[in-house]
Structure to design on (1072 residues):
């Protein structure tokens, strides 16, 4: 009996030992910094983010990676091809136990001369979570034509990605301009262009399809922004034209020729506007409400003369708004970009109302095609404006805040110059922006040959509660015509 | 008979019919990649499409592709023979009918393999169903298969469940079929509703009829033909079952032989009838142009009967690329005038596929990228457009972007060698800077940026030439544009501005210059450096005399006159140009 027990003990020990992956003990150290792709070094990462899988871009026949922090167990990973696939449950546990702590990646490569240890990669785990989901549209970064596309929601805590709506059930109509009220998946809208055209609005558990174009608007309702109360949406209404560059870095130019702002009352199905935000002299676009709903921020420019698009430049403006009686104040210039020969797009205000981030380019407002486009922040208390240290030589464009104001997502084409990818960065308590990192994928080589672009990344606090089928059904209905006030 | 059937098909698609394979291979790209596979799971029928793309990649080699097609059609026939393996044996001849129906449709270049593959899978399932003698197993298989076949073959699964119902009623003596069949039909019809709403999130019509068209009205006639076949054949064989002695054994053999000869003759007749020489020429022209086989393009063009925009476009491009544009422009059909030089942008899927190559060859690299991208979106990811996107990005110095397209191509079976040529240029900036190919292409590009016109190439060419007078291709093309549009004044002006002085000009240019100088004798001094040969002058006199003596008119041109002058510019101007028979002056 005793012998039997002894055998069982030995077997259990063998199993336990086999379960433990041994760290590399015999190695030499090198000063050469290890190259990993995507670059997840010196970043601040959310404690609820999915594993930051990466590829080691150093020659070796075998790789080992130890991931550890102050508390908890070391995650040990072996790889033959340099792909580091981090086990999600261990990763989540490690991050949860180490909020505010450093996170280290120790990387070893095996060559003919044995194991070599590279200098450790150091990251920081933030205390604050990022919103659990990111909504975006995926499509080819094309010119005029489109085919299959969709608006998707990615769970940032895992790798799960689900469609909110795909156009395959809408005869490939274009779906665009998804927008959420204050990061809430409970209140959202998007446009459908084509045979099933209209604007799908989801609020207070109800789905509606509306036609928001009324007489006097230069075009349909285009760029949206929800009033924080979730009862109104400010839209721009634009007449847009495309141009194609014969040579140079930019392939395409998109410019407004007329644009005005309107406010759509979701409950009453009424479109309102005012001569102060729909002027004949200027083009007004990219509306954004302040978090208290008392101001509408937007951008404003003089229209192009003789298709001279390089002289179309937008200032950052705001105008007071009284939601009780729908009255407007006078437009004020918040940032005079024209004076320095620049042009502002996509103003977005932090939930605490203190910081505004916008995109700035040399001219125009379709910044996704402008390599010089960068992100800037304005301290709304001091009006001090500065460039954010998150930019690259390539496009940085659309951006949105997390609901807690600690995280921001933005589109950047830095990876391959043509397709926008979502990048996140952390704003610390002092308003300092940290190094950005690309949205992690299960397969770290995913972006290398993914030919489509991520459009309008919007952080949301959970999964959109409407079934895709219900959205499709709503999109197939005839839209209810909105009325002009 | 099966062997002969196979050989006939193989021989046809490896030779005359290979244009079908070329077209399909150029419009499909199979990648050995997980992500590529996943995208086929978004729709019912995705697996059939995945297999179709897999087989289509082998069309890169027409001999191999033809072998596969012959094999698939043979498999269809074989499966039907297996189902029809009931007396009278003469019925086996019917087994060729579905394959022949497919042949008729397959010879339309856009038809593709998907339906044939989905059909073959369904047939295989019907064969298995018929082989299962035990009722329980048969029913289990039918239930499982109808679900799987819906997911793999979408709307084509209707053939399976209809056949199951018919064969079960006609050929199997099971007491439980009265209960099974209604339940089976309900299941078969419910699967698309359930999957459409809960799995694929697609509309009702799409979920029921995908791969066949978006609705009953849009379904291809082939489906109705096949449904008809599958309804009539089991009923027909069942009716004839009791008359298995319809033909005596002695009589059956000659009938079978005669029937086989008839079927083979029918196969050859269908292939002959469905062969479209003009479509063949157009597809091969585009294919040869992409491969830079310009002489081959001109050879095909010379054999083409009639005028066609695509043929004219590639012919003129081939003339430009082979250096023959300045001499031989009017030796080819130019009835379309300037419309045969380029495509205007009108969001057309077809035009986007071809129009960009001219921009690429002229040095409008951004515009070539534009057209390639539009084509990629509307035609799907395919090798010609991915190659063009890789090249245009590479030339523009966007090496990371070029690498992305090259990586994509590298996941395919047959384009790795091509990728190997260019990937080093993406990875090494020094190699890129030293590359002669990059230098040559960049030397063609405009030096200053301007917005493209897209509806008319002429203003773009003018701007390109002004910004980059060294662009020889743009210069030749510009001159051809002016000649074809009867704008002799602008031709002469451009010639003087950009042609090196004292360098001989082609006889075709001399012919045009003679017309210009006849109208503007005062300009003779300005153009004295452009020597006009005595032979050209004599030919011009001969032309003028012949015009007087033979008095040719459009629609009534004496053959002698045509034979003598039809390759001259004068002839084009007076008798061919769609822009009238007069010189269009500058203003």
């Amino acid at each position: 009996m005793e012998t039997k027990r002894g055998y069982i003990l030995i077997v259990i020990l063998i199993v336990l030992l086999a379960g433990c992956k041994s760290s590399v003990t015999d190695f030499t150290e090198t000063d050469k910094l290890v190259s990993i792709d995507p670059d997840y070094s010196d970043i601040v990462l959310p404690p609820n983010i999915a594993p930051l899988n990466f590829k080691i871009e150093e020659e070796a026949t075998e790789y080992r990676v130890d991931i550890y922090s102050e508390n908890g167990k070391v995650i040990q990973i072996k790889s033959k091809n340099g792909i580091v696939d981090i086990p999600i449950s261990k990763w989540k546990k490690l991050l949860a136990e180490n909020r505010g702590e450093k996170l280290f990646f120790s990387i070893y490569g095996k060559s003919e001369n044995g194991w070599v240890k590279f200098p450790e990669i150091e990251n920081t785990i933030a205390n604050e979570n990022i919103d659990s989901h990111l909504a975006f549209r995926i499509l080819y970064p094309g010119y005029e034509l489109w085919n299959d596309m969709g608006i998707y929601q990615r769970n940032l805590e895992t790798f799960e990605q689900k469609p909110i709506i795909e156009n395959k059930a809408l005869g490939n109509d274009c779906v665009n301009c998804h927008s959420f009220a204050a990061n809430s998946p409970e209140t959202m809208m998007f446009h459908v262009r084509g045979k099933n055209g209209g604007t799908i609005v989801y609020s207070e558990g109800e789905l509606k399809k509306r036609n928001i174009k009324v007489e006097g608007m230069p075009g349909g309702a285009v760029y949206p922004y929800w009033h924080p109360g979730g009862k109104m949406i400010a839209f721009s209404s634009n007449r847009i034209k495309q141009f194609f560059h014969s040579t140079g870095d930019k392939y395409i130019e998109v410019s407004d020729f007329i644009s005005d702002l309107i406010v759509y009352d979701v409950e009453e199905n009424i479109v309102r506007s005012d001569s102060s935000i729909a002027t004949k002299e200027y083009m007004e676009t990219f509306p954004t409400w302040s978090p208290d709903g008392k101001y509408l921020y937007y951008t404003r420019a003089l229209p192009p003369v003789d298709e001279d698009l390089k002289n179309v430049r937008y200032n950052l403006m705001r105008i007071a708004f009284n939601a009780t009686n729908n009255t407007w104040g006078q437009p004020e210039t918040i940032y005079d970009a024209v004076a320095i020969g620049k042009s502002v797009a996509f103003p977005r205000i932090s939930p605490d109302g203190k910081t505004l981030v916008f995109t700035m380019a040399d001219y125009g407002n379709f910044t996704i095609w402008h390599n010089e486009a960068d992100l800037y922040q304005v301290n709304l208390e001091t009006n001090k404006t500065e460039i954010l240290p998150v930019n690259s030589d390539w496009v940085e464009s659309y951006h949105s805040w997390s609901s807690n104001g600690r995280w921001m997502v933005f589109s950047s084409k830095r990876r391959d110059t043509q397709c926008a990818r979502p990048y996140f960065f952390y704003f610390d308590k002092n308003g300092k922006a940290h190094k950005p990192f690309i949205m992690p994928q299960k397969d770290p080589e995913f972006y290398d040959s993914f030919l489509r672009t991520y459009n309008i990344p919007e952080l949301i606090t959970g999964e959109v509660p409407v079934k895709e089928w219900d959205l499709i059904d709503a999109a197939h209905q005839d839209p209810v015509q909105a009325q002009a006030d | 008979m099966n062997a002969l059937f196979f050989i006939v098909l193989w021989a046809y698609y490896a030779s005359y019919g290979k244009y079908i394979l070329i077209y399909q291979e150029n419009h499909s790209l199979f990648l050995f990649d997980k992500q590529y596979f996943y995208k086929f799971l978004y729709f019912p029928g995705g697996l059939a499409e995945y297999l179709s793309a897999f087989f289509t990649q082998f069309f890169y080699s027409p001999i191999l592709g033809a072998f596969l097609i012959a094999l698939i059609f043979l498999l269809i026939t074989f499966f039907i023979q297996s189902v029809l393996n009931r007396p009278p044996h003469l019925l086996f001849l019917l087994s060729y009918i579905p394959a022949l129906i497919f042949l008729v449709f397959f010879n339309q270049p856009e038809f593709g393999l998907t339906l044939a593959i989905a059909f073959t899978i369904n047939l295989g399932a019907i064969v298995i169903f018929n082989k299962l003698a035990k009722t329980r197993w048969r029913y289990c298989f039918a239930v499982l298969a109808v679900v799987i076949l819906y997911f793999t073959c979408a709307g084509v699964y209707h053939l399976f469940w209809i056949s199951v119902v018919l064969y079960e009623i006609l050929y199997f003596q099971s007491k439980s079929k009265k209960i099974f069949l209604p339940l089976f039909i309900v299941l078969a019809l419910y699967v698309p509703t359930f999957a459409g709403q809960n799995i694929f999130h697609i509309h009702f019509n799409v979920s029921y009829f995908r791969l066949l068209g978006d609705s009953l009205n849009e379904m291809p006639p082939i489906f109705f033909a096949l449904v008809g076949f599958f309804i009539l054949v089991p009923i027909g064989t069942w009716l004839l079952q009791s008359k298995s002695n319809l033909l005596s054994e002695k009589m059956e053999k000659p009938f079978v032989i005669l029937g086989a000869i008839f079927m083979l003759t029918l196969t050859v007749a269908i292939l002959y009838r469905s062969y479209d020489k003009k479509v063949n020429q157009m597809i091969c022209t585009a294919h040869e142009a992409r491969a830079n086989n310009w002489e081959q393009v001109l050879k095909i063009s010379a054999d083409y009967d009639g005028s066609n925009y695509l043929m004219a476009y590639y012919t003129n491009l081939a003339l430009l690329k082979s250096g023959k544009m300045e001499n031989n422009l009017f030796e080819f059909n130019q009835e379309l005038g300037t419309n045969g030089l380029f495509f205007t942008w009108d969001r057309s899927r077809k035009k986007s596929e071809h129009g960009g190559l001219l921009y690429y060859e002229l040095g409008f690299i951004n515009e070539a990228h534009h057209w390639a991208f539009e084509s990629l979106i509307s035609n799907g990811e395919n090798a010609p457009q991915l190659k063009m996107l890789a090249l245009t990005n590479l030339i523009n110095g966007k090496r990371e972007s070029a690498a992305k397209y090259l990586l994509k191509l590298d996941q395919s079976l047959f384009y790795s060698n091509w990728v190997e040529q260019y990937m080093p240029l993406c990875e090494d900036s020094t190699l890129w800077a030293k590359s002669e190919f990059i230098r040559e292409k960049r030397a063609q590009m405009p030096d200053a940026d301007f917005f493209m016109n897209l509806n008319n190439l002429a203003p773009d060419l003018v701007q390109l030439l002004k910004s980059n007078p060294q662009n020889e291709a743009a210069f030749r093309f510009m001159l051809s544009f002016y000649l074809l549009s009867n704008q002799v004044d602008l031709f002469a002006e451009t010639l003087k501005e950009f042609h090196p002085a004292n360098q001989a000009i082609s006889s075709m240019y001399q012919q045009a210059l003679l017309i210009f100088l006849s109208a503007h004798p005062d300009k003779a001094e300005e153009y004295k450096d452009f020597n006009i040969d005595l032979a050209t002058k004599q030919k011009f006199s001969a032309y003028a005399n012949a015009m007087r003596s033979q008095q040719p008119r459009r629609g009534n041109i004496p053959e002698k006159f045509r034979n003598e002058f039809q390759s001259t510019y004068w002839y084009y101007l007076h008798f061919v140009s769609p822009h009238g028979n007069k010189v269009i002056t500058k203003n």
